[in-house]
From TrEMBL:
<dbReference type="InterPro" id="IPR032630">
    <property type="entry name" value="P_typ_ATPase_c"/>
</dbReference>
<keyword id="KW-0479">Metal-binding</keyword>
<protein>
    <submittedName>
        <fullName>ATPase</fullName>
    </submittedName>
</protein>
<feature type="region of interest" description="Disordered">
    <location>
        <begin position="732"/>
        <end position="758"/>
    </location>
</feature>
<keyword id="KW-0813">Transport</keyword>
<dbReference type="GO" id="GO:0016887">
    <property type="term" value="F:ATP hydrolysis activity"/>
</dbReference>
<dbReference type="Pfam" id="PF16212">
    <property type="entry name" value="PhoLip_ATPase_C"/>
</dbReference>
<keyword id="KW-0472">Membrane</keyword>
<dbReference type="GO" id="GO:0045332">
    <property type="term" value="P:phospholipid translocation"/>
</dbReference>
<dbReference type="GO" id="GO:0046872">
    <property type="term" value="F:metal ion binding"/>
</dbReference>
<dbReference type="InterPro" id="IPR001757">
    <property type="entry name" value="P_typ_ATPase"/>
</dbReference>
<feature type="compositionally biased region" description="Acidic residues">
    <location>
        <begin position="748"/>
        <end position="758"/>
    </location>
</feature>
<dbReference type="InterPro" id="IPR036412">
    <property type="entry name" value="HAD-like_sf"/>
</dbReference>
<dbReference type="GO" id="GO:0005524">
    <property type="term" value="F:ATP binding"/>
</dbReference>
<feature type="transmembrane region" description="Helical">
    <location>
        <begin position="392"/>
        <end position="411"/>
    </location>
</feature>
<feature type="transmembrane region" description="Helical">
    <location>
        <begin position="478"/>
        <end position="497"/>
    </location>
</feature>
<keyword id="KW-0460">Magnesium</keyword>
Length: 758
């Protein structure tokens, strides 16, 4: 009987039988798989095992028994040692390796663009894959997730840790490549047992003993904790260069076990996280780590295969991609899409639209009820807190269900602030939801105060005006007052909610008038029946039969809503948000692409300004290398160089600009002589690559050499950098000045010979 097995090389190479495999063949397979991985191929290793029917029958009977054992199933569910895993390992080990295969698994259409849009939207993308490290890194580069050398790469992989260990004189037997993933799992199980017993010291001792046996793991943990400490201590929480984290299956288990919090801090600070050779339980482990470690984030799990099911179920929201690997991911997901690029529409279009709609619906429901409740609450002070109701049952029963019910529903379902095309062009608008700008305590307080102000205006404005309208004509003035108040409240609430809509549809205009007409028609009809409303009988006709009533309704409504309208108009005019700008472009029919280009340039300038601000807070020794790494265009680089001069020379900004302009025109020595008490090392190092520590000393020597330099007419442009460096050196100590003087003479003689030849 023959049993064939295929799987990842990291697993299959551990399961082979050394006695039944040629060592050279195993090395050749491993080497070839590594080469394929570097070319971004998906690899798989094949092996087989020969068994007798008697041995297989014995194994099968025992396996069927333990699979049905509840105790063993519970142990396996808790990921503790159990007979099920032991029997599976027994059957899968001792293999004879046959060979390996590689297939090209190309990216779907639109994946790099989709990831770029998600990144611009403020979404952190973690790539958790079962591919080898080399394959995963190449795929990450291909889809613009990993941008080298722009990003600072942090690697927690066997290859990187072992290379670092050997460079520091480590022993070959201490290499992490000799550690199997099962060893980490065994330590995790032992630590869990110790923690269940309440013995935390024992758990720490188990981990410490394991790290002592493997110096590479200890070094990795210390490095991770040091990175986390630097990030926490950084006030701006922002490195000069974005970081990317790469780790493999060994360090997924180890770092989440030994330094969970530090690992989470480092991972969340990285622009990209690439987890390689991850098992399905490790995918879910990383998802739960982020979900439970930071309560403010929302996790979205995206996958297309059976190995992604646990990750999809562990995330807040799961998205399954319908692909060639079956429908298990789709069946366990909240949403299903056919290609990865459709994820941008799901998040940037539908996500923004529905999140905005739900928040507006919730806020407007609170707002309109605040008005209705407070006008009744304020009335209790007029009637001596007696509890007398001056509202009809019609207003109480149908205020929320009929008279003001449409606009929360309209804002949640039909309203669109920007078009779908602009949602794609400006993914930055998705950051509003991430930063809680649409639904927060501050925004809720705004609607609360708005409702409070308008209810006070309605209450006291109606009380002031009711005598002039119905005095001596209404059966009981307090019921006429209640009818007037609820009429204005319905009008103000609907009008204010109408102003929140972004697009004008005929249905919204019709709904505004229908809501008012429903109230007018309803109260007009029931006020004609004394049995239904004895205190309101004929009062509606008496109240609205007076022309002054209409003037008062318009006046009080205007006073209530005008302040909020003015505040909104001023804010949109003088401090518009990105949404306001895009809406203006849509209304005027302007070019949205030109706006996008302008916003990208503005964002680039803001990014450079923030980068310089961060660098300026660093010590001078640490700031200099980072200034050299600033990524900016020619115009912005001048600002970088000027900032370098300001930092190095401790000068005022105006003096620094003058000095820089002098250096650009070649008057370097003149600019140096014009500034007393300065160090020229930084300028020389920054602009010309020299490394002379020059300080002003001998004025006579300087004056003599200055005359020689200024009298000489340099005609060879390629020597300019060297000459400028010498000029700095001439200001240094005498022995350096003499050496520079002789070198200057040599250049002068060479230049004279060139003139003669010409």
């Amino acid at each position: 009987m023959w049993i064939g097995i295929s799987g990842a090389d990291s697993i299959m190479l551990e399961l082979h039988d050394p006695d039944r495999n040629d060592e050279r063949r195993v090395e050749m397979i491993a080497c070839q798989v590594g080469k394929w991985a570097e070319e971004a191929f998906r690899t798989m290793v094949f092996g087989y095992k020969e068994l007798t029917e008697e041995a297989f029958s014995q194994w099968m009977s025992e396996y069927e028994a333990v699979v049905e054992d509840p105790a063993q199933k519970e142990l396996r569910k808790k990921k503790q040692p159990n007979r099920i895993d032991e029997l599976q390992f027994q059957m899968e080990s001792g293999l004879v390796l046959q060979g390996a295969s590689a297939i090209e698994d190309g990216l779907q259409e639109g994946v790099p663009e989709a990831l770029a849009q998600l990144s611009d939207a403020g979404i952190h993308v973690w790539m958790i894959t079962g591919d080898k490290v080399g394959t995963a890194k190449n795929i990450a580069v291909a889809c613009n997730l990993l941008k080298l050398p722009e990003m600072k790469l942090i690697e927690f992989t066997k290859e990187a840790i072992d290379e670092n260990l050997l460079s520091k004189g480590g022993r070959t037997e201490d290499l992490t490549e000799r550690i199997s993933p099962s060893a980490i799992q065994d330590i995790e199980w032992r630590m869990m047992e110790a923690e269940k017993e309440g013995d935390v010291e024992k758990a720490n001792r188990i981990l410490g003993e394991f790290e002592a046996q493997h110096p590479g793991l200890l070094a990795a943990r210390m490095h991770c904790e040091a990175l986390a400490a630097n990030i926490v201590n950084d006030k701006n929480n922002r490195a000069a260069r974005p970081m990317a984290l790469v780790l493999d299956e060994l360090f997924i288990d180890f770092l989440t076990l030994s330094c969970r919090k530090a690992f989470l801090v480092v991972a969340q600070c990285c622009k990209a996280v690439i987890a390689c050779r991850a098992r399905k339980d490790q995918k879910a482990k990383l998802t739960r780590l982020v979900r439970k470690g930071n309560r403010e984030v929302v996790t979205l799990g995206v996958g297309d295969g059976a190995n992604d099911v646990e990750m999809i179920r562990a995330a807040h929201i799961g998205v399954g991609i319908i692909g060639k690997e079956g429908t298990q991911a789709v069946n366990n997901a909240d949403y299903a899409i056919s290609q990865f690029r459709y994820l941008t529409r799901l998040i940037l279009v539908y996500g923004h639209r529905e999140y905005r709609g739900i928040t507006l619906a919730a806020l407007t429901i609170f707002y309109k009820n605040i008005i209705f409740t407070l006008v009744q609450f304020c009335y209790t002070f007029f009637c001596g807190l007696s509890g007398i109701r001056n509202q009809s049952f019609l207003a109480v029963m149908f205020y929320n269900t009929a008279f003001t019910a449409f606009f929360p529903f309209y804002l949640a379902v039909f309203d669109r602030d920007i078009s779908d095309a602009n949602c794609y062009k400006f993914p930055q608008i998705h950051r509003q939801g991430i930063q809680h700008r649409l639904f927060s305590i501050r925004r809720f307080a705004h609607f609360l105060l708005k409702g409070l102000f308008e209810s006070l205006v309605i209450t006291f404005g109606s009380a002031w005006a009711i005598g002039a309208v119905v005095f001596g004509t209404c059966t009981m003035e307090m019921y006429c007052y209640g009818m007037l108040v609820i009429t204005i409240a319905i009008l103000v609430a609907n009008f204010s909610m109408t102003l929140l809509r972004s697009i004008s549809m005929w249905i919204s205009v019709a709904a505004f008038w229908i809501s008012l007409l429903l109230w007018v028609a309803g109260v007009l009809v029931i006020s004609q029946f004394r049995a239904l409303m004895p205190y309101f009988y004929q009062n509606f006709l008496l109240l609205f039969g007076n022309i002054n009533t209409y003037l008062i309704v318009v006046l009080i409504s205007a006073v209530a809503v005008l302040p909020s309208m003015m505040v909104k108009a001023i804010r949109v005019e003088f401090t518009p948000s990105l949404i306001n700008i895009i809406q203006d472009v849509q209304i005027r029919g302007a070019d949205a692409d030109a706006l996008k280009t302008a916003l990208e340039e503005q964002s680039s300038k803001r990014g450079l300004a923030q980068e310089l601000k961060t660098i300026k807070q660093l010590p001078q020794e640490a700031a200099m290398p980072q200034l050299l790494e600033c990524d900016a265009d020619e115009e912005a680089m001048q600002e970088v160089k000027e900032e370098s001069i300001r930092m190095s020379l401790r000068m005022r900004p105006v003096e620094a600009q003058n000095a820089y302009q002098m250096m650009r025109t070649g008057n370097t020595f003149k600019s140096i002589r014009s500034m007393a008490g300065m160090r020229a090392l930084a300028i020389c190092k920054q602009l010309h690559g020299a490394s002379y520590d020059a300080q002003s000393e001998d004025d006579d020597t300087q004056h003599e050499l200055l005359q020689r330099i200024n009298s000489h007419r340099w005609r060879v442009e390629k020597k300019k950098d060297l000459i400028d460096s010498i000029k700095f050196t001439l200001m240094g100590p005498k022995e350096e000045s003499h050496a520079a003087k002789s070198e200057l003479n040599t250049i002068t003689e060479e230049d004279s010979d060139t003139e003669k030849q010409e």
